[in-house]
Protein 1
Amino acid sequence: MLDAEWNLTEVAEVALVEVSVHNPTAVDRRVRVENRLDGPTLPPRRGGVPERGWDADGYAGVVPAGGTMRLGFASPAPPAEPPVAVEDGGRAENDTAGDGAEDREGNGNGDPGSHGDGAAPDRAASAAAAVRLLDDAAPPADALPVPDADADADAEGEATAAATTADGARRARAGGPSATDADVAASVGSVGTTNGSATAEGAGREGPGGTDGGTAPDGATRAGDGGDSGGGGDDAGAPGPAAGSTGDGGDAPGPAADVEVPPPVAAWLAGVERRIDHGERLTDASVVEAAAVLDERGGVDAVADLPDRLAADEAALRALAERAAALAERAGGTDVPLAALRRLA
Amino acid sequence: MIVAVAGGKGGVGKSTVAYNLGASLDAAVVDADLAMADLPAGRGPDLHDVLAGRAEAREAIRGGPVRLLPCGRSLAGARAAEVSRLGDALDGVAAECGDVVVDCPSGLRADAGAPLAVADAALVVTSPRRFALADAVRTRELARELGTGLGGVVLNRIVDDAPVGAVERALGAPAVVVPADPRLGRSVRENEPVVAAAPDSDPAAAIDAVAERVRRCR
């Protein structure tokens, strides 16, 4: 009595089945659509709860007189024909039974109204029905943080941020968070500068470093470590986006001062720089200095992998420098004739 | 028996009514306002934990002047809470404590609908504030759509003459008038139900009348 048509497509090894059931008779009729594919039935869901009428084997519902019902589901199964078996369940009683749910054992799709009639209330089904019917009320998600390339950033970031807020003097010496991008850009430009700038600020902090006399960005470089925006311990690796602006820490060097490095790169470099800073401070460190670094990193275990990571960082930075230099050459060598292209278009 | 105390609008006094009603019924009170909880909490597992599967419902019930299952206060907790688990959670509380009063959030979304759908009866709280009655009507409709009957109406925070007739006609159920009273106002904050603090007072009598209305719904 019911006319059914199906359509089967396959996307990425999942079969998508569409079914259309038409009821040409003058009365509402029940229908049962069973999944005949060799795989589980994945029905449409709302808020994680399967839509009303669906169960593990398929769908049960009522097709109104003269009407057409369309439904669809997925199944991670090899395509087979026919993908569904459509059964005519006979004439549907009127009033509530809108989904034939009472034909099956309770599976979370029952009509919530049924619990008022003296039967043991199915509270899980009621909650599921409410979730299905109504809008989601969860608070919105956090804004996406910039991915932090430094795997130990959380522990380190918190320690660093805490150390920073406790040490107002260091903040003052650091001169604020804003110059980080410029220094990062400067560091990327050529390998030579990086060593000089990072080491120089060791001298500024009464530490053991300071072997190469001061080059300009020392005070500003310090900011990349601790001074960055106090917001969120897990964001310590990403001063780049917070800074945004460039070079206004004052002493940033020459041509790279106005270049903004993409946040993920800035974040990665900030993490690298933090490790380098710790490594330098631990090199030939005094007891006081060494203790300070151990405190920041969270104990000697956290420092155990530092030599290996620094070696990896050095290799990565050198490779990056070569590649960046080559790409810069190529970028500089291009000459896109915009005017001519506009005439072409 | 599970009673959902709902009201559509914030500020009508749902939480205060739910808390005091729980004391009068000797029921456990569940703070189901997942994003803006306000019943007394403390350390230990809460409803966020229960709805995220981190704790059983009975582990989160606290003793005190009123048995409470409080809710967490963090956004992360609210995000991780699965509202669809509320049915099982309330079943767990009912198994442990008998009667349960659920303080529902305001609004008409899934977080308000789930406790309404799960409850055996709904209690709609409204007040003489502007638009509170319209929101109460919407909440009553939502309860009806979810298959839960209206057990009673509370006309709360009454100072002068209460428009009882109009409210009863609009909502289709008898209304109990609860007067505005500072003892009620501070009962939640101080974790001191008015039926214990001032048993012979008008507000206590009104709360007992609400409890009697709920008992008739069994």
Protein 2
Amino acid sequence: MKRIYLPLFLIVIVASIFRFINLGEVPPSPDWDEVSHGYNAYSLLLTGKDEYGDPFPLVLRSFDDYKPALYPYLVIPFILLFDLSIFAVRFPSALFGVLTVLAVYFFIKELISHSENQRNQAGIVGLITAGLLAISPWHIQFSRIAFEANVGLAFNIFFVLFFLLGLRRPWMLSLSTLFMGLSLYAYQSEKVFTPLLALILFCVFWREVFKVSKKYLFLAFVVGFLVSLPFTWYTFTNKAALSRLQGVSVFADQTPLLKENAQRLLMDKENNDILGILLDNRRVLYAKTIISGYLSHFDLNWLFINGDLARHHAPGMGLLYIWELPFLFLGLYYFIFSNFSRKIKIFILLWFLVAPIPASITSGVPHAIRTLNFLPTFQIFIALGLLRAIGFLDRIPYNKLRIKSKYVFVFCFLLFIVFNITYYINQYFVQQNYFYSSFWQYGYKEAVDVVKKWDHKYTKVIVSNEPHLDQSYMFFLFYLKYPPSEYQKEAQSASGGFKEVHRFGKYEFRPINWEKENKSKDILFVGRPDDFPVDISTVQNIDFLDGERAIEIIEAR
Amino acid sequence: MKIKEKIFLFVILFLAIFLRFYQIDSIPPSLTWDEAAWGYNAYTLGIDGRDEFGRFLPVDYIESFGDFKPPVYAYITIIPVKLFGLNEFAVRFPSAFFGVFTILITYFLVKELFRRSESKHVEKLALISAFMLTISPWHINLSRAAFEANVASFFIVAGVWFFMVGIRKKLIFFILSVVSFILSAYTFNSARVVAPLLFLVLTFAFRNEVFRQKLNMLIAGVLGLIIIIPIVPFLLSPQAGLRFKEVNIFTDINVVKTANQEIENDKNNPLSKIIHNRRIAYAREYIKHYFDNLNPNFLFIKGDGNPKFSTQDVGQLYLWELPFFILGILFLFRRKEGYWWLLPTWLLIGIIPAATARETPHALRIETTLPVFQVFTAYGMIQFLQMVSGVKFKALKIKASFLFVGIVAFTLFFNVLYYLHGYYAHYSKTFSGEWQYGYKESIDFVKSVQHEYQQINITSKLGRPYAYYAFYLQTQPNEFRKSAIVHRNAFGFVNVEGFGKYRFNDSVNKIKNPSRKVLYIDVAGRLPSKAQLLKTFYLLNGEPALIAYRFSI
């Protein structure tokens, strides 16, 4: 048993290095969700209210996307420690990333210990899985941005871990239901995924659950109920929060899709084609769209080569390492046909199959964040595949050249693995900033520095808020550390949400139309190169890290 | 073979013929330019043994539009054209015909692959595999138009089957196998990679059996060499290379640019030069295009993005097949029956050539993987049947196993109905533009009025009009060759700018001296101000495609 703690310790160290090194500099800039989390945390810390003046919100209205509000609360202590900086905002995510790696080890060990035939494997499978998660591009990606999904994942793992532990030490069941409830406050996907996970867990382990004494079960139930009640209540009573779900679901804005279908239906009706009226039904189309979204998460290119949006993966990388591919298939095959107990097989496979469900009812699939709960199932399969492959090695015959050919084989493959990981590290820590700085909305920090330096000369600063400068007001609030109490007062009707124009202090955020602007010398303009005439002289230019022009700061005259 | 199986097989083949030949001349709604070219080349070959441009019995290639088509499809179309005349049915006949035979051979092949296994279900498996191919949207779509890939698939399936029979019976099957594989290489480009690789794998795997039959091997080898020789000079020629360069991923300069930038970002670190080596970047591209062909949405939801290969309603496979497909693969590996390993190997080899191209996934270029997908599904269904037949549970006096099978059969029926309804009721109308609809109708019109005109100017905006005019006017080969104005550009592309009194170009509407003696055919919406519109030709969805006009000065 003790032998296992050293490797585990090393794994945690590796996980921490991958998650904390240059946390404030890579990715090169916070995106709008990150600054929003940061500023709302700052606002909560100083005033106990969010940017809109809501006291201690459960759900953050933010850019009218109504995020579950847990993350900003987690940021508060780190703002106290490190001031309002991007490092502080990202800190909880990275921290929970490391904790997830640790928890995954104990979770796998505990889970596999439930299977009599495989009990002696439990520690090693747990270690390899945790190790794979520690270096997983997918997990590192979302551990290094201030994004709530990673915390949601951590809570789900804690929830399952304490559930399994709780079957032996019943008081832990209450911890389990606590984390189950909390995960609802962490991220949107969890609203769908966590209840499903709980259901699976209960269906698989109900016999064990009912062996636990009633007292503890009751306690756990009460904890879970009390923790999730406020959120559930809020979700079902708040129309605005529901609107977010409708906004991103497949049922929203499918006009082109429906239009084509409507034409077909019309034709069927004209031809009196009853069969056609039945088959070209709108519901068939919706079902197809949802299944299509679901299946898109099993596209090998998404998993291994491309990923989806630029902010969701390092350039040139997918979400898993390509060297893991053979082991993934081997592990899946082995897992299905192995002598693991039926319960474990059903539990893990259902987890694996349920993970993409929240994402598949939304548009914009495949989606690496909304399916973050896939983790660590991929890593489990890969770990099992690796172990199986090592088992195969003994079957490779001796070579006549007096070298065991299996060592040659292993050496070559290890070289490939090292190569692959090196490539990833380089892509993530070096190339990402260069190639993807525009996707990370780079340039605000530099822009605000310039503005701060000069703004005593101006009575008004006008900032564009058209793409790629969307939600620019939040970046200014964040980098200016604009006093939240003042902002809450000013913003009432002037700022926030999906408004066209946002305003606070002498700052105004709106589309710039150069022809019609009042060109007084008291006004400073911050905008995109497209907003201004080509030959205009600028106070300062700010470029993306690949040299493309990002922001121009201009004095009207 | 028992009488019951014979009946099943007969029914399957009958269904196959129906699904492939019913209304084949009007759905798809019209000929693509490749189909027109196949037809016309078959026509001229049938008259004087020369292709459209006068090459005598070409065996290495048919130049056509400069795409240097492998020639087999033109030759096998000669007889249908002689029999049925130069029309849509005749051109598409070989594809559908060989499509049906692919199904028959699939049945025999599956039996051969699993002959050694102890399973009692081989006969069922073979029948279900053949059935799955029969109703396959992939195979139906490609069998109903003159796609040479569909014929190449037949030759590959036949080649594998002959080989498998050959190792068991010491007969001439080896020779037939070699001939089939080589014919496939004379039929379709992808097969030029797939056929030799498959043949090598088979020979290696069955080296003992193969070497035992030295004489047959020798004959097969010599014969193979003889029939492959004619194509070799062409394969090594610059034209062939040019075509490949144009469509492959390894000439994409952006990959190199990115790699160089990455090395620069690493300050020219030597390690960076290794990990950002352009060969590795290209390898990544290759894997990407390879995986594209396994994209679940391509396979199960929408199919190939090109409406010529897919109705866009269903995937290349039915969504219904998905669970059985997965089950089939899992249990094929698990049970290791017969020569099970050949199937996944075949699938992986089949994608190799297609993944070098920029356009992926590509249903046509990976058609050589058929019928592997269908056998996987069939195998999964057999496993499923075995599993549920073990279920003893009864509800309302109905055995649960019947219930399961009933549900599965019903959903399959629904899925097939969905595809077929889309195909027959909507496909032609929605996508007639993709099939270059409008040429035939406009040529019919030209035929009826052309005696009034000295010259007919036709737009080439819809692509390669000459092939259609030669085809539908049944232009005599000699007449065509004598009067054709042919241009070949540096890339080897062939452009026929006119023949007889027909002239083809992009800018029909730039008219210097309008004359009463000229008839104009142009794309809709380009009617010059003083012209007199004679007729508009519409797509099947009601949008105008072409117009005919003249000047009545």
